[in-house]
Amino acid sequence: MEALPTNGDYIVVKAKEGGVHVIGLTRGQDTRFHHTEKLDRGEVLIAQFTDHTSAIKIRGKATLFTRYGVVETDE
Where does the record locate the signal sequence feature (predicted)? Predict the structure, then answer.
């Protein structure tokens, strides 16, 4: 199977409360969780889309910084 192209984009996640979950999802026919991080209030995580990571899911109150702008999660 040929590897899918990667754009290498980064996102920055800053937790606005304790217990924010950042979940990496796999590429391919079956999308699955492959990595989870739990952030405390004020912690920052820098994540990258790769050949293995096609999506990143955020649970909890956080500010996301991307090349497309700043996004706030809803309550």
Answer: none
Which has the closest alpha carbon to 3: 51, 49, 54, 53?
Answer: 51
State the fold for domain 10-72.
Immunoglobulin-like (2.60.40)
Fill in the DSSP letter of residue 3. P
Q: Does the pLDDT of residue 27 top 80, yes or no?
A: no
Query: % helix / strand / coil in the chain, to the nearest 5?
Result: 0, 55, 45
All structural domains of the chain with their residue ranges:
10-72
Residue 28: C-alpha distances to residues 5, 14, 21, 55 (Å): 12, 28, 23, 11
